[in-house]
Amino acid sequence: MIDALTPPLVLGELFPRGVTPYLLGGLLVGLGAAIIYLATGIIAGASTFLESTLSYVSDVPRFNRFEYITSRSWRVVFTAGIVSGAVVYGLVFHPGIWTTDVQWWRLLGGGFLVGVGTRLGKGCTSGHGVCGVGSMSNTSLVSVMTFITVAIGTAQLVQALGVSP
Questions:
Q1: How far apart are alpha carbons 77 and 91 in whole angstroms?
Q2: What element of type H or E holds 26?
Q3: 75-87 per-residue burial string, b: 16 or more CB within 10 A, e: under 16
Q4: Contact of 55 with 137, CB cutoff 8 Å
C-alpha cells in the first residue's frame, strides 16, 4: 500500500553522482563560512552579501548601512567567487550542458520568489542553513525546517500536477 502512494522521485537514488562531490562541497562551504566568521565576525549569508553589493548602485538606506559600506569590497569578491566557482565547475566537469528546458519567465519568477522568501525569512539558506544551524540558533533551526518542508511540498505538488519545464 505505501509503495503505491510513494512518488517515484522519493524512490530514486539519493546520491546519483556518489557521495564524494556532496561531501567535498559541504566541507568547502563549511570551511569558507568558518574562515569568514573567524576572520571578520560576519556570518557568511549570501543574501546579506548581495544586499551589501547593492550599496554600489542604490541610495536606499537599507543597502547603505555602515557595516555594508565598510566591508562591501570583499563581499563583492565573495559573491563573484560563488558565481565564478559554479561556472568553473560546470566548464571543467560538465562542459557543453549550459542549457535548460525551463522557460525564462519561470526562471525569473522562481528567482523573484526566492528573493521574497529570503526577505520574509530574514536570511537565506547559507546564512540560516550553514551558519545558523551550526551555531544552534533557534531562529535558524525553525527557518531551515520551514525551507525544507516547503521545498519538499512544492516538489511533490509540482510532480503530482505533472508540471514540466
A1: 20
A2: helix 20-40
A3: bbebbeeeeeeee
A4: no
- CB-based contact 52:62 (threshold 8 Å): no
CA dist 105 to 87, 109, 113, Å? 22, 6, 12
Cell, residue 137: 540558533
Cα gap 135→140, rounded to integer Å: 9
Contact 52, 75 (CB under 8 A): yes
Nearest to 140 by CA among 153, 126, 151, 150: 126
Question: Position 163: which residue type?
Answer: V
Cell triple for residue 44?
Answer: 557568511
pLDDT digits (tens, 9 = 90+) for 38-82: 888 878 877 777 778 888 888 888 888 888 888 888 888 888 888
pTM above 0.85, yes or no: no
Angle, alpha carbons 130-48-106 (nearest 5°): 85
Q: How many angstroms separate the CA atoms of 32 and 43, rounded?
A: 11
Nine-digit cell at 75?
A: 563581499
Q: Of 56, 52, 90, which Cα lies nearest the Cα of 71?
A: 52
